[in-house]
């Protein structure tokens, strides 16, 4: 508020008041609706509201009528065919990570796409098997199925036992998939998709990198065709490596050579696709080409019998009947399923966000949870396993010209054709080829090791989160590793707020800007004024640290000064009472008699008495604590008369720290240091008033909007003469200080020239 007064201006700056906030709070809540009114409003329905709900639940009703048939259909057809071929091969390959027969990977590549077509909000991601999730599901399958294998009837034949174990693994995989889908659906319906924010980019990057390492180690047994037992406890990765290297002499050379050749060719052509993607109309489908060649060579030369290689085996055409989840497995895998649900959503939402920003369309996180949840429920019910979105598959769908999820629907048609018509042709395909194809898709995730150097240069805390997440996921496994990583990440946040980088501010270039004294050369700090900034919330864990940093900034402990002054005051009273103290214009004069008794009395004082406010009203003179006191009475001298606390970055204050902050303020006030708090919001001060923070010592008039307001108030309060101020315009103008009250909201008015320099 700026009001002209003659040739000058009155700049009215609001100063917070607890009473004013109380009145405003009452006005604010006076006309609030009751709970019944809110319930009626929530349950009421109109045509527009019903339409809005329908469009939010079924996004296809919004974008399909606007589909540009002539412009987009051809691009979606090309993209759908390319994505479908990749989805078939990834479904087969990632089924090995789940430790179930490859044919079930086709179901995992088909059903999620159909559901997401109707319910998803992203136009470009391809939903289906994802290696990290497949690995997480496989870890649960291995853990639960291995427990069941110990109770098998040894009298049955080996083939019968293998069939039972295979069915048990399938039951665990589908049950975990359904449960993770139910969790995702519940989170979406309850509109709490924000839980994914607790997974930072650094954590997701490190976790997916560690998962890629797990995938790499898990595929060694297929590339070498070794019988490696299942390990699920911590350090399982190292136990698998130990088992592989102890059996290395049993390696099937045909499988090893085939997988290495496939892996080399896939890496080379993926690099070509990446380097010349702007010149290629579509990426070279190297996975499809190598699968066709490997299947033909294996069938033509009868690798299964001549070299005893492990092949995909029987591939039944058509769909198998739905399966009912096992409730007992629900109880045993609830924790693992929750981790699978969160990771699946986090990856899918991250990729969807990238494409939504690139093509400028909105996505809804809660609707994505609903879409992914129902996709997993249907997939698990029809013998598939949990999925999200594979980065490479989504990249193919987008780079080949996919415009909408019509491309995804057409990719599902390609998978459907394979399931019902030509799946049997893949029976001679070596499992080592599928393992090589799975490893070929890990390049992007393994290259994330480069993030360590980038994060170290930018943020040490994020770099530490990356390293510890990777270590946790490698050592503890994906399930426990994820939980430990999230806990460690939250711990770093607590650590950062518990030990904030507090600083002392000063004026830059005689302006109204205040910055850290260490960062600038031309700084001005008013004499006797200290400006202290705390850049984090203040709560029970960091109130002691805050107090210590404040003491370090001002250069003394206010409590120590207070106790010294109270001790000195008691000694002065004692000397004055005994007539040993005389006051002259030059100061105090006293004799040495009686000082020893006074010292003994001071030593026996209770400490609580020394912490009370200094009261000199009973003395016939005033004491200047910065002047020379009588003999042997030593009190530290301080030049500070005003302290400004910048709380613009303090978002909250809990009850425990509130008591500590009030104690600190009282200690400064009791030694005649005025304390001011700046930059707080309404809720902060309203909470202080509600908790009875203010009293006769700590008053509600200590709050200012900005640091500069507080500095101007201090300069005027200390009656700085006009000669100490260098006005750039009219030097004969003076400061005028008044306080007005307008409807409970207090204003402090400064009558100053427009440009004032210290």
TrEMBL record:
Q: What is its main location?
A: membrane
What are the UniProt keywords, alphabetically?
A: Membrane, Transmembrane, Transmembrane helix
Is RNA-binding among this UniProt entry's keywords?
no
Which molecular-function annotation in GO is an example for this chain? chloride:bicarbonate antiporter activity
An example Gene Ontology CC term for this record: sperm midpiece
Superkingdom as given in the UniProt entry: Eukaryota
Which processes are annotated in GO (biological process)?
Answer: cellular response to cAMP; intracellular pH elevation; membrane hyperpolarization; sperm capacitation
Tell me which residues make up the STAS domain.
Answer: 519-714
Record's bilayer topology term? Multi-pass membrane protein
Q: Where in the cell is it found?
A: Membrane
The protein's matches in Pfam families, at most eight in alphabetical order, are given as:
STAS (PF01740), Sulfate_transp (PF00916)
Looking up InterPro entries in the UniProt record yields:
S04_transporter_CS, SLC26A/SulP_dom, SLC26A/SulP_fam, STAS_dom, STAS_dom_sf
Q: Which residues cross the membrane?
A: 77-98, 104-120, 170-199, 251-269, 338-357, 369-386, 406-427, 464-495
Question: What's this protein's name?
Answer: Solute carrier family 26 member 3
The gene from which this protein is expressed is SLC26A3
């Amino acid at each position: 508020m700026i009001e002209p007064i003659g040739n000058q201006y009155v700049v009215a700056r609001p100063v917070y008041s607890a009473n004013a906030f109380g009145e405003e709070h009452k006005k604010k809540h006076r006309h609030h609706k009751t709970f019944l009114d809110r319930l009626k409003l929530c349950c009421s329905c109109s045509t527009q509201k019903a339409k809005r709900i329908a469009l939010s639940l079924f996004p296809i009703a919004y974008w399909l009528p606007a589909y540009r048939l002539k412009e987009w259909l051809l691009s979606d057809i090309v993209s759908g065919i390319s994505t479908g071929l990749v989805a078939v091969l990834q479904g087969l390959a990632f089924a090995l990570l789940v430790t179930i027969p490859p044919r079930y990977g086709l179901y995992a590549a088909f059903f999620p796409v159909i559901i997401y077509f109707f319910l998803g909000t992203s136009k470009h991601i391809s939903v289906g098997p994802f290696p990290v999730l497949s690995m997480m599901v496989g870890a649960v399958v291995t853990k639960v199925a291995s427990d069941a294998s110990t109770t098998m009837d040894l009298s049955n034949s080996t083939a019968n036992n293998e069939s039972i174990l295979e069915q048990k693994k399938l039951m665990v995989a589908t049950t975990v998939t359904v449960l993770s889908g139910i969790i995702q659906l519940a989170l979406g319906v309850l509109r709490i998709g924000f839980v994914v924010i607790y997974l930072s980019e650094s954590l997701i990057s490190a976790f997916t990198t560690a998962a890629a390492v797990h995938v790499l180690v898990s595929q060694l047994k297929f590339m070498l065709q070794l019988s490696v037992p299942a390990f699920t406890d911590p350090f399982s990765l190292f136990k698998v490596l130990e088992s592989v290297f102890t059996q290395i002499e049993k390696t099937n050379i045909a499988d090893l050579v085939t997988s290495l050749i496939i892996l080399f060719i896939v890496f080379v052509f993926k690099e070509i696709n990446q380097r010349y993607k702007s010149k290629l109309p579509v990426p070279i489908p190297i996975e499809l080409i190598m699968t066709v060649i490997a299947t033909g060579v294996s069938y033509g030369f009868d690798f299964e019998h001549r070299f005893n290689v492990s092949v995909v085996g029987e591939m039944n055409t058509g769909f198998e009947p739905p399966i009912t989840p096992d409730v007992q497995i629900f109880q045993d895998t609830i924790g693992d399923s929750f981790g699978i649900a969160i990771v699946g959503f986090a990856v899918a939402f991250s990729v969807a966000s990238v494409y939504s920003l690139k093509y400028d369309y909105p996505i809804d996180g809660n609707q994505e949870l609903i879409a992914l949840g129902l996709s997993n429920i249907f997939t698990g019910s029809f013998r598939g396993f949990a999925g999200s979105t594979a980065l490479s598959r989504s990249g193919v769908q987008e780079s080949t010209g996919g415009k909408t999820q019509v491309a995804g629907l057409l990719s599902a048609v390609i998978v459907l054709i394979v399931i019902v018509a030509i799946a049997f042709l893949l029976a001679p395909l070596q499992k080592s080829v599928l393992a090589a194809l799975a490893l070929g898709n890990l390049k992007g995730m393994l290259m994330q090791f480069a993030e360590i150097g980038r994060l170290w240069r930018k943020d040490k805390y994020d770099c530490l989160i990356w390293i510890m997440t990777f270590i946790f996921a490698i050592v503890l496994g994906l399930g426990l590793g994820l939980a430990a990583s999230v806990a460690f990440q939250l711990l770093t946040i607590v650590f950062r707020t518990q030990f904030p980088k507090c600083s002392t501010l000063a004026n830059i270039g005689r302006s109204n800007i205040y910055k850290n004294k260490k960062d600038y050369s031309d700084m001005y700090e008013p004499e006797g004024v200290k400006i202290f900034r705390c850049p984090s919330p203040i709560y029970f864990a960091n109130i002691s640290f805050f107090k210590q940093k404040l003491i370090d900034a001002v250069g003394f402990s206010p409590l120590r000064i207070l106790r010294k002054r109270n001790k000195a005051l008691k000694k002065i009273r004692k000397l004055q009472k005994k007539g040993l103290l005389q006051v002259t214009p030059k100061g105090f004069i006293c004799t040495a008699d009686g000082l020893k008794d006074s010292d003994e009395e001071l030593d026996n004082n209770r400490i609580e008495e020394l912490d009370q406010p200094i009261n000199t009203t009973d003395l016939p003179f005033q004491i200047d604590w910065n002047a020379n006191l009588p003999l042997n009475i030593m009190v530290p001298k301080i030049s500070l008369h005003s302290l400004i606390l910048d709380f613009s970055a303090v978002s909250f204050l809990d009850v425990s720290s509130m008591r500590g902050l009030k104690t600190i303020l009282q200690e400064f006030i009791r030694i005649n240091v005025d304390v001011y708090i700046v930059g707080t919001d309404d809720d902060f001060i309203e909470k202080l008033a509600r908790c009875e923070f203010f009293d006769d010592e700590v008053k509600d008039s200590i709050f200012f909007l900005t640091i500069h307001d507080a500095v101007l108030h201090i300069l005027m309060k200390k009656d700085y003469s006009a000669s100490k101020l260098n006005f750039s315009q009219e030097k004969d103008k003076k400061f005028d200080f008044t306080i007005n009250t307008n409807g409970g909201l207090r204003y402090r008015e400064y009558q100053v020239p427009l440009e004032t320099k210290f």
